[in-house]
Amino acid sequence: MSTKFLIHFAQIHTDFRIAELESLARLNGINVDLHKGSPDLSSPYLVVELQSIDEAKKLIERSILVKEICEYWAEGKTYEELFEKIKQNPERNMLYKKDSFKFNVDVFGGSNTEEEKLRKINNFSFLPFKGPIDLKKPNQEFMVYENYGDVDSPGGRSSEPKVIYFGRRIASSSRYEMIKKFTLKQRKYLGTTSMDAELSLVMANQALARPGTLMYDPFVGTGSMMLTCAEFGSYTMGSDIDGRQIRGTAGYRKGINGIKANIDQYKLSHRILGNVVFDICQNPWRAMDLYKDSGWIDLIVTDPPYGVRAGAKKLGRRNGTVEDYSFKIVDGVENHKRKDYYPPTVAYEMEDVVVDLLEFAAKMLVVRGRLVYWIPTVTEEYQLDDIPIHPALELVANSEQPFGSWSRRLITMEKIREWSEADSKVYNTNPADSENSSRCTSSTSLSGLPNNKPSPAHRNFRARYFSKFIRQDSPATPADAGN
Amino acid sequence: MLQCHAKGCDDPAKNFPLEISDFTKEEIEAEKNKDFLVRMLPKLEWNALYTTAVKLGITGLPETLPSDAETNDEFLSALHTVLLEVHIKEGKMTCNGCNHVYPIKDGVPNMLLAEHEI
């Protein structure tokens, strides 16, 4: 028999909350319908049905976007209605007759003075609780949630609660402790693009990071996600074309030992395996050839460079010849043999980065392994089919973090079957793209947008970001600004 | 798990394993997970792992993969050390195919290719 529970979310990143809980349900083998009556994201409360208190605890234990979960007792539009419903279950009320207890009033969209809260709590005195009140370590904690609605709620904010929930607190999530632990404010080594603690943790949940799994970030940067995935039990490793980011030998916060400083700070060296410098386009993974069908990585979690704060780069030559660069004699030796030789790089367009990433994931992930990554989109033009697809990968979640004229979306995909050579015949990128493409492999476009999709909302994102997202077909659009 | 990926260096018998030399190593304790090791077993090229371990002065791995590898705790413990605990702090990895030297600095291998190798 199922029991009703009330989930109290933090009212932030609302488009991520159902996806996060679905991932955690999957991780714990819990069957739960989180879409019943299409959840209202403007409310921080959600009623769900679960099989047991144990399931409720497990479901939210690792959650970052849930605050706590309660055993649901009743709800009402008024306190009178709420009290009537609570009184209809006298057997349950009697269960807590002897326990020490505490009441909390939590208000969304409105406010209560301490006196008002106390008065409201006292109105629950009809309950048969005879145990002592204990504000510090009560046996039972009862929650009163008043929802006044918010500006974006249906009907807006109101002066009286629209709905009042009552429940018995079961468990708190790890939200508070985890965000506190990983906050960038306390982190030793940071870069300009370090992912914030909250979303790094949500990403680890989306990817089902857990003990005994292998996590890889091909754009590791300063390593935010390798930390949070390791916190949840995965062995983690990363790579980046820019070794200075990994080692922390240039720019911001120079000389504090790079990612290693963070590994030591969070005491995660027992799960973080290491980092390597290379271009993901020219990667040395032996498994890329050997195990491209069955894969060997359990989760790929990454924030690919958008080209806004940090432009994506790949190895290559913009102009000149090989002789000019590699074989030129510098200080008596061939250039490429010098100790501080750094090969030339060229721009790597966001659109190409993402398509290459999908192809890489389709090969390297194990079946049921997950790819979790960010993609920026122009709000006005975004359509669902802008999100690149691959026949071996299934879209699990697409959560939006809006910034007005643009958004970034956290995409979660799952490998549903082994990679196959035949995938190339099913999907193609737009043929018009191939001329100017900066993709790793131009010959076989195995993944990409659905056929004939003219222009995804993340194309030339950097240029459009700096031109304030004036429509591409508008005569005012500056040609290729910012490149 | 890393092979030489320079253009034209595609003889699988030569571009792997990379030969480690001039190294300093350290051991960092890693969390034990037997299931993980067992799952990795079919992905390992045993001879390459064995010869590299010997070169690094690590004894304890058998020359051939034991038939009871999945249940042999002593073996799995040795494998755990080699795969997850031994880190090369400084050193060189040289390709036996094209002689490209990949340096390891501060525990981070630099696998970038020169421009004529891509």
UniProtKB/TrEMBL annotation, chain A:
Residue span, tRNA (guanine(10)-N(2))-methyltransferase TRMT11 N-terminal domain: 4-175
Low complexity bias spans: 434-447
Renumbered residue ranges of the record's region Disordered: 426-458
GO biological process: methylation; tRNA processing
Compartment(s) where it occurs, according to its Swiss-Prot or TrEMBL record: Cytoplasm
Entry-linked InterPro entries: DNA_methylase_N6_adenine_CS, RlmKL-like_Mtase, SAM-dependent_MTases_sf, TRMT11, TRMT11_N
GO cellular component: cytoplasm; tRNA methyltransferase complex
Gene Ontology molecular function, alphabetical: tRNA (guanine(10)-N2)-methyltransferase activity; tRNA binding
EC number: 2.1.1.214
Top-level taxonomic group: Eukaryota
Swiss-Prot/TrEMBL keywords: Cytoplasm, Methyltransferase, RNA-binding, S-adenosyl-L-methionine, Transferase, tRNA processing, tRNA-binding
Domain (Ribosomal RNA large subunit methyltransferase K/L-like methyltransferase) ranges: 186-314
Family, similarity comment: Belongs to the class I-like SAM-binding methyltransferase superfamily. TRM11 methyltransferase family.
Name the UniProt record assigns to this protein: tRNA (guanine(10)-N(2))-methyltransferase
Gene source species: Mycoemilia scoparia
Automatic annotation (TrEMBL), chain B:
An example Gene Ontology biological process: tRNA methylation
Gene3D superfamilies the record matches: 2.20.25.10
Domain of life of the organism encoding this protein: Eukaryota
Pfam families: Trm112p (PF03966)
Molecular function per GO: protein heterodimerization activity
Family from the record: Belongs to the TRM112 family.
PANTHER family according to UniProt: MULTIFUNCTIONAL METHYLTRANSFERASE SUBUNIT TRM112-LIKE PROTEIN, UPF0315 PROTEIN-RELATED
Protein name from the UniProt record: Multifunctional methyltransferase subunit TRM112-like protein
Organism: Mycoemilia scoparia
